[in-house]
Structure formats: structure tokens, C-alpha cells
Design brief:
With 242 residues, this protein is of the alpha/beta class. The protein is built from six helices and nine strands; from the N terminus they run αββαβαβαββαβαββ. Strands 5-4-3-6-7-9-8 form a seven-stranded mixed beta sheet, sandwiched between helices. α1 runs antiparallel to α2 and α2 runs parallel beside α3. The chain starts with 12 loop residues before the first helix and ends with a strand.
């Protein structure tokens, strides 16, 4: 049966799976074996294994809650930082299944919201261009949203192409500091003078701030959102001088 509701996937599915596997193994082994003997040395590890297993379980559950509920609240928090005029050109870097891109498209009347991604299923379950296109159709924004393959470190857009750039949980997946800095430089490059970028991540946001500032932008960074996101996410607001 064809899905009738948009599906935005599970973030970091492999991490969640591994947390649940580790939790089960630790809880079972901690219950069965109160001690571990390595040669002449005996380790009392039941309590440590059980505590660690419970922590893994809690982390896995919190990540699932974020993926199914919290990321929608976080999307709204990010989009609320833009003073929408409804005619903006918007870019979502690392769009995945289009959560931010489609959310932005719903703010527009004459503008366009564009999403780019390299479609890594490791970072988002079922991450594929055709599934994002399906979400665009189901959300009723086909005339205001466009999605394409694209690398955050080498965007194909001309300078000063977008009024707003959005990105959530994308830049940290770039494996090198040089690559992450390049992505930040590219975001500033494609922003129009006076444009704004809203970037969110759970690690390396201090490095992003340095890279954005070095590219000539001004930035502010929020504290971690401990109540609605897991891992707790920060938001970096970037402004390109007009």
C-alpha cells in the first residue's frame, strides 16, 4: 500500500540499533554473570554492566523520541528564527527527507525552497531522493520545493543565490575539519548580502562559528536544547553583512 503520510525517517539508525543491542547484552550478561575472571583476577562487574546497559537503553529511547517527535519541534524552533517575507529563496543543506526544506516551503508564496543531499542511509533511514520527492508531494508543496543531489563542500549554486540557508545535523558528518570549514564557507558564499543561515548540530558548533566568522559573517550560538532534542542540539545563527 502506498504511504499516505510523509515519512521523515529515523536519524542515525545504526547508532540507535547499536545502543539497543548493547543494552540487551549488558543487561543479560550482568544478570547472568556477577563476576568476570581474567586469569587470576576477578572483576565484580554486575552493577557496572547493568547501569551501563540501562544508560544505553535510555539513550536509544531518547534518540527515538527525538526522531519521531522532537525533531519537528526543533524544526519549528529553527524556522521561527527567520523573519519570513514569503518570497525568499531558501537552501536546506543536508535535507535528508526534506523536513526543513518542506517546513520552509510552507512559509512561502512566491519563493522557492531547495534541498541538497548526498543521500547517506547511515545518517537517516531510507535516505533517498525519490522518498524526499514523495514527501514534497504528500505535503502539498510541489510548486515551492525542489530537491537535488549536492555536496555541502562544493555547492553548484552561484554566489549570493539564497536569502536563507538552513541545515540540521549535517555538517558534523563531513569527516575532516577542512571539509567542515569549507561547508561553512560555501554557506556564506551562496547567501545574499543581508541573508541569514540557521545551522544546528550537537558537536563542533564552536568550530562552525570560527569558520563563519572567518568567512566574513557574524554569528550567535544558542545553548544546548536539553528538553526537546537528544543529543542536545545548539543553533548557530549566521548573518552575512548587507
Amino acid at each position: 500500500m502506498t504511504a499516505s503520510k510523509p515519512d521523515y525517517g529515523i536519524d542515525a539508525p545504526g547508532v540507535i540499533r547499536n545502543l539497543f543491542i548493547a543494552a540487551v547484552l549488558l543487561l543479560v550478561l550482568g544478570s547472568i554473570f556477577p563476576v568476570v575472571r581474567i586469569g587470576p583476577v576477578v572483576f565484580l562487574w554486575r552493577s557496572g554492566a547493568i547501569v551501563t546497559g540501562v544508560l544505553c537503553l535510555i539513550e536509544g529511547v531518547l534518540m527515538l523520541v527525538y526522531a519521531k517527535h522532537g525533531k519537528f519541534l526543533h524544526r519549528d524552533r529553527m524556522l521561527a528564527k527567520v523573519d519570513w517575507k514569503a518570497n525568499e529563496r531558501v537552501l536546506d543543506v543536508g535535507t535528508g527527507r526534506g523536513l526543513l526544506m518542506i517546513g520552509a516551503a510552507k512559509k512561502l508564496t512566491s519563493g522557492i525552497s531547495v534541498g541538497i543531499d548526498i543521500w547517506s542511509a547511515k545518517d537517516l533511514s531510507g535516505n533517498a531522493l525519490e522518498k524526499t520527492l514523495r514527501n514534497i508531494e504528500l505535503e502539498g508543496v510541489s510548486g515551492k520545493a525542489d530537491v537535488q543531489s549536492g555536496d555541502a563542500t562544493a555547492m553548484k549554486f552561484p554566489d549570493a543565490s539564497f536569502d536563507v540557508v538552513l541545515s540540521n545535523l549535517c555538517i558534523h558528518n563531513i569527516p575532516t575539519r577542512e571539509g567542515r570549514d569549507k561547508a561553512c564557507q560555501e554557506i556564506v558564499r551562496v547567501l545574499k548580502p543581508g541573508g541569514q543561515a540557521i545551522i544546528s548540530d550537537f558537536i563542533k558548533t564552536g568550530d562552525y562559528v570560527k569558520a563563519f566568522n572567518a568567512a566574513g559573517a557574524t554569528t550567535t550560538r544558542s545553548g544546548p536544547d536539553l528538553l526537546r532534542t537528544f543529543p542536545p542540539l545548539r543553533i548557530v545563527v549566521v548573518r552575512k553583512p548587507g
